[in-house]
Design goal:
695 residues; Lipoxygenase-1; 31% helix; 22 strands; Rossmann fold; twelve-stranded mixed β-sheet; alpha+beta
């Protein structure tokens, strides 16, 4: 089964000798660039283009063509190579189109040497670009994956190659164009004829216009999971319904529709293993197996493809986990990408397990129906024997799937135990020793930890929930009634206190990971009910202003922040961002609103919605601490506000969903250990650095 990706998604590669087939409808130039573990091409010799069409393990065409076939042997790549970018560009000469927005979307397929299509991607969303990075093959823990990139460049090959770190980008682009213009050497072999079904599948793939995710990251596409106890809380387009079993391959890139019927048994041996991990447990000969999570077709018994692929540096044993073993420009970015990979791997292996169990269930039901459809078989021992046989096969399939899941969970747990202690303060839990050596940073991080995520298959394996900075969405810390089987949080006052303490922990982390004076916090606490939770912020002096109380305080804070948003917007729209008033505070601002809607009138609510909508783009962010039932007095007026904010809870709650198959992820807030003084110590360090900077 082919995995059809959309921009930003990735998929494991089960083979190392590949062909990359490109169909563009118009002549395009195909090239490729190699990159090291920092994401940079080390020189012109690391670029394959029509003027220099070959490197060890990689070959491209010397001419522009509507169809290309690139030969790739990942096993022959030098050890220093960690990424292979496949590049497409429109010829600069010849009178053809000069931007991809005027031609059919290029279609890219990664195939095995036998022509089996492994991954496909239609490069959509291009406009003025004349060059594009279509896909990238990259190494992760000894195994190779493919990612759909679709990054376009209006400046053509020159701009694209410069973005890869090549100082001689202009010369390389000129050499490629000259080779194309002269029509050097050989033509690319014509692809083998396709069957009618193959042609129909490719045409469908080309016509599909899938939206791209807003930004990659472990939680960039997480949305509120909409269940019976959280009706109307969806925030985002993906995964807002109850999680359904994934179809085979659905947990990776391009998940199929939830609730797809389980696959019929092929009766052959299926290579059922985690895409980037070690070999799976053997499947008994002649027994059907659960669907393969990598989406690959089942090879016939004894076929070499049924054995684990031999990756460079992969000795058929799980790779030893290493912190920062991912691509990126810095260790911080590598750790961020590694956490993303762990999140994706956990989602994929869990989806494969659930799909296998569903398959086993449906198969048992089908076998029982067939065996007992004849009334005569219900008499005597024949019916009992059929039931026992069906149940035995069901137990075998489920046990096999669980063994694979347990193996993958164990490997992810080992990786988590290595990664967690190596995380910087912005990514670390409050009990991480890194906070004891905390120093105020000189620049903000690329992301921040808002808690942990886990699935019911292994509640002890927790993946850090990282959100990119600056925040693109505000936060709603829910102080309402949460799903609690024992009603342990029935007291409204206790719920509000827990919610406010969680908000303070989030705010303290945001303050701590920004340089001195570059992040200010404002608090609206109309009735003063949050004084106890706000004590760490108030007593250390890190608040920009004292907590605002009463209706007058609410109006004052909202007026100042809306005025700030207006001024920055006018400056940006006027093209004069430096023309702000003298003494203007250009720092990021966070507004914490407690005990909403107490102290708010209609005008204040309108300003609050304005800040939620317009504030993030100009550095003003919102954190609501409220119960939605209390806010219901304003009717549907606040529904857009509720949907635009990310809902978090101060206690574990399974209200978040991933964008692939809609797993219901349990969110756990970043709780400060009881009795710990880490929050006080960190905020004191921040306050001291601010005072020293103002002297």
């Amino acid at each position: 089964m082919t995995a059809e990706l959309v921009r930003g998604q990735n998929h494991p590669l089960s083979e190392v000798r590949l062909e990359i087939r490109i169909s563009a409808g118009r002549p395009v130039v195909a090239a490729a660039a190699l990159s090291d573990d920092s994401g940079r091409a080390r020189g012109a010799e690391w670029v394959v283009h029509p003027g220099a069409p070959g490197l060890p393990g990689l070959e491209v065409s010397r001419q522009a063509a509507a169809d290309h076939r690139l030969a790739v042997d990942l096993a022959a790549m030098p050890e220093a190579v960690h990424r292979v970018d496949v590049l497409l560009a429109l010829p600069a000469e010849g009178g053809g189109p000069t931007r991809f927005g005027t031609v059919a979307a290029p279609f890219v397929a990664v195939t095995g040497l036998d022509g089996t299509e492994l991954v496909s991607y239609t490069v959509t969303g291009l406009d003025t670009e004349s060059a594009v990075i279509a896909v990238e093959l990259y190494r992760r823990q000894g195994a190779w994956k493919v990612r759909a990139v679709g990054q376009g460049y209006a400046g053509g090959l020159t701009e694209l190659l410069a973005d890869l770190g090549l100082t001689e980008s202009r010369e390389l682009a000129a050499a490629a164009e000259e080779a194309v213009a002269q029509g050097l050497a050989r033509s690319v072999a014509v692809p083998p004829p396709r069957t009618t079904d193959d042609a129909r599948t490719t045409d469908d793939a080309r016509s599909r216009q899938a939206p791209a995710p807003s930004r990659p990251g472990p939680t960039a596409s997480l949305s509120t999971h909409e269940g019976s106890s959280h009706a109307g809380q969806a925030s985002g387009a993906a995964g807002s319904s109850a999680p359904q079993p994934a179809a085979p391959g659905g947990s990776g890139g391009g998940a199929p529709a939830a609730g797809s019927p389980p696959p019929a048994s092929t009766g052959g041996t299926i290579d059922y293993r985690h895409p980037r991990r070690g070999p799976a447990a053997p499947v008994p000969s002649g027994q059907p197996a659960p669907p393969d999570p990598s989406g690959q077709p089942a090879p016939p018994p004894g076929h070499p493809a049924a054995q684990p692929a031999a990756f460079p540096g992969h000795d058929q044993q799980p790779a030893r986990p290493v912190a920062g073993d991912a691509t990126g420009w810095s260790m911080e970015e590598r750790l961020y990408n590694q956490v993303w990979g762990m999140f994706e791997d956990l989602a994929r292996t869990t989806a494969a397990y659930r799909s296998a169990v569903d398959f086993a269930d449906s198969r048992m039901d089908k076998e029982l129906d067939q065996a007992l459809s004849d009334p005569r078989s219900r008499i005597g021992g024949q019916g009992d024997a059929a039931r026992e046989a069906a149940r035995a096969k069901h137990a075998q399939l489920v046990d096999q799937a669980r063994a694979v899941l347990d193996r993958d969970l164990a490997q992810l747990t080992d990786e988590s135990e290595v990664v967690e202690p190596a995380l910087p303060p912005a990514y670390a839990r409050w009990d991480n020793p890194v906070w004891h050596g905390y120093r105020v940073p000189m620049e903000p991080p690329m992301a921040i930890r808002l808690g942990d995520l886990h699935l019911p298959e292994d509640p002890f394996l927790r993946i850090p929930m990282l959100i990119r900075l600056p925040l693109e969405r505000g936060l709603w810390i829910d102080s309402g009634r949460w799903a609690s089987p024992d009603d342990s949080f029935d007291d409204a006052g206790e719920r509000r206190l827990l919610a406010m303490e969680a908000a303070v922990a989030h705010a303290a982390r945001l303050i701590a990971v920004h340089p001195p004076g570059e992040f200010g916090v404002h608090v609206i606490d109309p009735a003063g009910s949050g004084a106890r939770a706000l004590a760490p912020l108030a007593h250390t002096g890190v608040l920009a202003w004292p907590p605002a109380a009463g209706a007058a305080g609410v109006a004052d804070v909202l007026s100042r922040l809306t005025q700030r948003v207006d001024l920055v917007q006018m400056a940006m729209r006027g093209g004069a961002p430096d023309a702000l008033p003298p003494g203007f505070d250009a720092a990021e601002q966070l507004l914490i609103v407690n005990d909403f809607p107490h102290g708010f009138d209609d005008r204040a609510v309108t300003r609050l919605r304005y800040l939620a909508d317009e504030g993030p783009a100009v550095g003003v962010h919102l954190m609501m601490v409220a119960d939605r039932e209390d806010a219901a007095a304003y009717g549907p007026l606040l529904d857009p506000l509720w949907r635009s904010l990310m809902r978090l809870t101060p206690v574990p709650d399974d209200h978040l969903a991933d964008p692939w198959v809609g797993h219901a992820w349990t969110y756990e807030p970043p709780v400060v250990p009881p009795g710990s003084q880490v929050l006080q110590l960190v905020l004191t360090e921040v306050a001291t650095a601010r005072r020293d900077g103002n002297r």
